[in-house]
Amino acid sequence: MSGNSSSMLLVGVGTAGTRIARGVSRAFGEGLRYLAIDTDASSGQDEENFLLLGGNRLSGRGAGGDVVAARLAAEDSIGAVDEHLEGVRLAVVVTALGGGTGGGATLEVLKRLSDLGIQSIVFATTPFAFEGEDRLRNARGVMSMIEESAGATFFLPLDKLVGGEDNMAEAMRRAVDTLAGGVTLFWRLVEKPGYIRLDADRIRHLVSGAGRGRFAFVTVQGPDRASVAVDRLVRSELLAVASAPVNAILCGVLAGEDLRLSELGRVADGVREAFGDQVPFEIGTVNDEQTYCGRLCVVAMLFESAANGGEANGARPGTRRTAPKGPLGVGHGSARRFHKTEPTIWHGEDLDLPTYLRRNINLDL
Amino acid sequence: MSKIHAALEIGTSRTLLAVGETQSGGRMKIISHAEIPSSGVRKSQIIDISQATQSIRSVLREIESKRDQSGANVEINTALLVVSGQHIHVAHSEGNAVVEGGKVNEAEMMEAARRSREMPLPKGRELLDIIDQDYQIDSLGGISSPKGMSGRMLKLNTLQIHASSDRIQDARTAAENARLEISEPVFAATCTADAVLEEHERRNGALVLDLGGGSTGYAAYCDGILATAGVVGVGGDHVTNDIAYAFQTTNAQAEQLKTDEASACIGQYTTENSRVRLTGSSALMESRAISRRALDTVVNARLKEIFTMIRETLEENDLIHRLHAGVVIAGGGAGMRDIEALAEQELGLGVRRGRPLHVDGLEDVPDPWSYATISGALLYSQRTGDDAGFLNSILGRFFK
Predict the structure, then answer these.
(1) Residue A355: which of B47, B237, B301 has the nearest Cβ?
(2) Which chain B residue shows the shortest CA-CA distance from A330?
């Protein structure tokens, strides 16, 4: 564990997740707390920040794409996470869905965070189309469960993160780098604020029960960079994948000391106009001449209606599709009658969880 | 002395012990049965042996305290064990024999049968049953009686039904602790089929669904043979749990809502604002009411999912269009309101509830479909016991 007092912790789950976490750590530099979690010992057993799950069960060889095996391995070892959570109030979990550990272990990590009252944001990639239907099904199977357990979730289809002309290895590498870059920007917004501050507590409040969100970022330089940045964000495929209306927007602007007030206004107005000018809007800045000299980075996080009701997602006031919060936190008690039995998994879905929750069915209570 | 048979079902919802007797005409009659709500069982598997033992002791005591028509008490020492749960797997196996004289004879049929039974089981598995499907001579398949037919190689296709040795041993241990010996474990879904299907339905193609508390068993028949079978680890208990979770009720309340109020189809008995009052031990609980439509929505989602799983399994086995006699639903879950309509809608087949057809003694039972599996187990005992004659030696009757 890094020896600093930040209340934010970056958690990478699974092989891709640990790579992303390391990438963010390298890019951010000193002061970022992160924890890498995997069932595969080769992901970094010798590192201080690495936690091996299910060493006895899987012998450090990974879950072999088996969500259930990964979940059981995580259950075995989840208590060891606690020593990394001292003082943490917001955890950002990065992972890749479709394989075993990303899906299976992430659920257990989120449950543990929830049990300890730690708010969580999940950034999870979903497989490339070329990876096949099995991996897509695996990913879809756990997405709703992750949504139930996390404060906010950002599912990022790999096909939309990178271009289609890369070869497979290059596409994977670029996807990891791209997501790491995005999370780094988010981290800087919180940990190295500029004149307009976005602190961890404001974000905690914003993401609490925010449900599924959309996330994208752009980097632009040259004349009229603010307008170009907004235009590229608006056209970003990552923000266009709408499953529900936006009910809150978080925007970050990262630049050098040359950031002009008019640019900030142009970004804020453009993003609000494009994605919702009647919803809560938070903006923060980073002014770092060394890192962003001449460049303008804009990060947009669009939160969709979920647990907090409203008109979104077809939900009317008084309806509920998410689980009521029990004493153990969201997502923990949904399989309370079965939680000590062998899980029933079908197409990657945990059938012990109520069907109406997994299908996002609104209940007109 | 008439033949006595006993079967034990340690289900997720209830523990049931039934005693049957072969009547003079050869029909099976259930002369006594006892049941209590199960403890220590989840998803059809024992999770607390001492609680399961208590349940078995209770039903055994009740059976032995009853008197039959002749005024005798029935003492049960041994019973068949009905097994269900997602640890049960079904696999194809086969046995080959060379046809020496150009025409198949009985010895070669027996050799094929012997070899099909030599297929090794995975470690930690116990065989519940091997069911013969059909014969194949060279490339000609679908043969039910190959004797006298010409060819060079005879193959017998079979289905191996096997289960976790540990899970069966847990049930044996619980029964033995209650001083009841288990003679043989038998697969619940095929027992159910034995009880509820007519022969012509097996020939024309039929699916039997055993909707239990902790799991749902299925057995599909085509051309008179078992085409596929299995268990999905989801049952009525999941419906109860979903209700309890959605409406924050106790399990008892959820069970009552499921049994007395819910419909498998949304909107069948509801007006837009129809509500159901909860029953409970406190005034606070009784003051709550929930939306009937929301209740039906929760139940419908779960049952629909179960039927979807079954339909996908049938499609994978290319059976869905061969089940001309439709679907027979049995087990405790078959009692749910409108479940036949939902099953028809989701499976695209005709559906009926399955009451035991070949067993007497259940005339006064309000939910005979929930006795289908135990009835089938008694029929199995009768069939194998009559052949082997062994049950007479271990089951007895005495006068007090």
Answers:
(1) B301
(2) B245
